[in-house]
Recover the amino acids of this structure.
């Protein structure tokens, strides 16, 4: 409603110069905050790598991993980071595909999350290797029958597709920066690829984006399905489950939307984007998050009820380890974070404020991390009888790499914001110029056809 | 072609731990020390597990030697990304130490918890290094390793038999654990030869295969405790 009203009082042609320089402020006038943030994050990252040096020097013994808990934080973080990457490209592609007009200021940020987080997540299995020096064996001696190779393929494909999907709609904005003389000129000149905004170029660009958005959805779904297969393809209690593919995809989209909203709220504050990221955007995303929360609960309930009702001894050992055993705080913390908090906060209009949404999103990201922890560790810690239960306490190295991963995520955003606009300028412009008319035409096409004139 | 298997008679096992010690010596297993063992990183291809049951005044302790059961349908082989673990034509599940990337997927997938990982650079303190068995290669840090059914002994026996132009005789080759067991609880041999000692024992009504319901078709057969 308010969108239409404001439209009528404004000139219909595009964003004005103030708007554009507003959106490009982070690139054209970065300020000292950028240097401070980059330095701090680089220091954190450096610290993490220095601590990680111990692992390269002495071996995986410096982690808290042991027998039988052979996988820990690295794999948990691998799964959560790759999951969050579904925020981006998948959500942006679905919104584009369904012509959701409110997507315009959101898609860019979502796509950046995907590329940055995918890079971080995809690197985690390498941290986890006992012999990272032999990593290339997966190409020279790879077994395509192994779920790990499916993962390598799916993540590589997703990384390629989402990088291209981020880059192609970025070209007109890079050309805009080039034309405004932003520095480094050579970077924008090179990356703009001779964009002159001719009708033909536009047509090609739009065609490329539509092909990519269709292509990227099945790839994104395959990625987290295949990650779940790493666990589901073994015979281990708590892992060997047909529900795991869709369960992981739902969890990935769930954590992805939450991370997207966290990023949006923080960047809106930092770069004063309140005029572009409005309550309505958060409202719409919150509804998606609420739906995913209910989906998550439904899947979790089905998964645990099946294990409980079957009452198989090895399954029950894992079940009670989570339900009332050593992992009970993490299990119930997960239920509170993923279900209780988001459902309560997002269901009531009065609680659905920006800070409320921020709290709910943070809770979901933490809750989904706990879910990954609850999947990886308890099944390993409780092997089939007669083997005794194990334990797992992450070491300093693992915590350092966790913090390092989060710092890399922030650094990715800081650097992206320094060189490229966080909100797609040309897409907003297109929205102003065409979307209102197109939407009206579309709505008219939904309405019943006029009665044929009686002759 | 033989299909090597083993029976472990739980009625005979006294829990003395000789098999563990013999296995360590035979296969050049590194010594990880007490501190690492506290961290759940004890390093054995074969372990003797204790099962305690009964009331406090009348405790009953039973022992069970566990090792890689050399599945005919091994879950670890199916998940390995680099062909570093495989089942050879005689049914022994091996590990290629020089190719393993240390992802530990096989450890996560093994229902028998049979594989161990070199968390640190392995050490052989004292004169253990000097006493290393030359038939068994040493493993570097960061790779997975496992029981090989004393594969080097099988190879040696096969070479001997080939030189004398005959088949391997039953009882001619045995593993270090079986050889060292004072109660003769462990028997090693060819499961495809119906007359071998191990085959006859495996047909006993007391025989059971661990987690046979998983379809892994293990070749280590236990003879259940009756007393």
């Amino acid at each position: 409603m308010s969108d239409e009203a404001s439209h009528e009082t404004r000139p219909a042609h595009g964003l004005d110069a103030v708007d554009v320089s507003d959106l490009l402020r982070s690139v054209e006038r970065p300020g000292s905050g950028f240097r401070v943030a980059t330095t701090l994050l680089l220091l954190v990252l450096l610290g993490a790598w220095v601590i990680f040096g111990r692992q390269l020097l002495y071996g995986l013994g410096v982690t808290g991993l042991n027998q039988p808990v052979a996988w820990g934080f690295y794999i948990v973080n691998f799964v959560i980071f790759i999951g969050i990457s579904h925020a981006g490209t998948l959500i942006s592609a679905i919104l584009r595909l369904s012509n959701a007009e409110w997507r315009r200021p959101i898609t860019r940020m979502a796509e950046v999350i995907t590329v940055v987080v995918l890079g971080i997540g995809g690197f985690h299995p390498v941290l986890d290797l006992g012999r990272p020096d032999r990593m290339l064996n997966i190409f020279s001696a790879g077994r395509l029958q192994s779920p790990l190779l499916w993962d390598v393929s799916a993540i590589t494909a997703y990384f390629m597709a989402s990088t291209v999907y981020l880059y192609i709609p970025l070209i007109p904005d890079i050309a805009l920066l080039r034309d405004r003389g932003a520095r480094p000129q050579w970077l924008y000149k090179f990356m703009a690829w001779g964009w002159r905004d001719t009708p033909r170029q536009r047509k090609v660009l739009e065609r490329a984006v539509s092909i990519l958005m269709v292509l990227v959805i099945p790839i994104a779904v395959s990625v987290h399905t295949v990650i779940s297969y790493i666990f589901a393809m073994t015979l281990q209690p708590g892992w060997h489950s047909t529900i795991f593919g869709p369960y992981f995809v739902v969890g990935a989209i769930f954590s992805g939307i939450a991370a997207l909203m966290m990023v949006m709220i923080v960047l809106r504050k930092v770069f004063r984007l309140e005029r572009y990221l409005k309550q309505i955007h958060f409202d719409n995303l919150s509804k998606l998050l609420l739906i995913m929360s209910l989906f998550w609960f439904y899947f979790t309930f089905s998964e645990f009820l099946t294990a409980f009702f079957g009452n198989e001894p090895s399954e029950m050992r894992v079940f009670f380890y989570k339900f009332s055993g050593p992992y009970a705080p993490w299990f119930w913390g997960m239920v509170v974070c993923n279900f209780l908090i988001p459902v309560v906060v997002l269901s009531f209009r009065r609680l659905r404020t920006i800070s409320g949404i921020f709290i709910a999103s943070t809770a979901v990201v933490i809750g989904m991390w706990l879910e990954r922890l609850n999947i990886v560790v308890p099944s390993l810690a409780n092997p089939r009888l007669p083997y005794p239960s194990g334990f797992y306490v992450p070491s300093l190295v693992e915590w350092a790499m966790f913090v390092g991963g989060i710092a890399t995520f922030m650094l990715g955003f800081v650097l992206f914001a320094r060189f490229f606009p966080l909100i797609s300028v040309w897409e907003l412009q297109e929205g102003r110029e065409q979307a209102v008319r197109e939407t009206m035409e579309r709505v008219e096409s939904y309405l019943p056809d006029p009665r044929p004139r009686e002759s | 072609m033989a299909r090597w298997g083993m029976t472990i008679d739980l009625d005979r096992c006294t829990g003395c731990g000789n098999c563990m010690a013999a296995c360590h010596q035979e296969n050049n297993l590194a010594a990880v020390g007490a501190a690492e063992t506290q961290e759940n990183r004890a390093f054995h291809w074969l372990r003797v597990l204790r099962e305690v049951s009964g009331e406090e005044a009348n405790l009953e302790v039973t022992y069970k030697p566990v090792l890689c059961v050399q599945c005919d349908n091994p879950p670890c082989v199916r998940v390995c990304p680099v062909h570093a673990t495989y089942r050879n034509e005689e049914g022994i599940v091996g590990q290629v130490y020089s190719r393993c990337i240390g992802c530990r997927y096989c450890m996560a997938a093994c229902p028998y918890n049979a594989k161990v990982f070199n968390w640190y650079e392995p050490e052989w303190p004292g004169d253990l290094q000097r006493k290393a068995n030359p038939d068994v290669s040493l493993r570097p840090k960061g790779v997975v390793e496992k029981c090989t059914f004393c594969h080097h002994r099988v190879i040696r026996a096969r070479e001997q038999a080939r030189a004398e132009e005959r088949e391997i005789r039953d009882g001619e080759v045995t593993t270090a654990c079986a050889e060292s067991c004072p109660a003769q609880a462990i028997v090693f041999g060819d499961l495809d030869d119906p007359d071998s000692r191990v085959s006859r024992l495996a047909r006993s009504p007391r025989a059971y295969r661990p987690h046979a319901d998983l379809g892994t078709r293990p070749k280590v057969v236990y003879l259940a405790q009756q007393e």
In short: The radius of gyration of chain B is 18 Å.
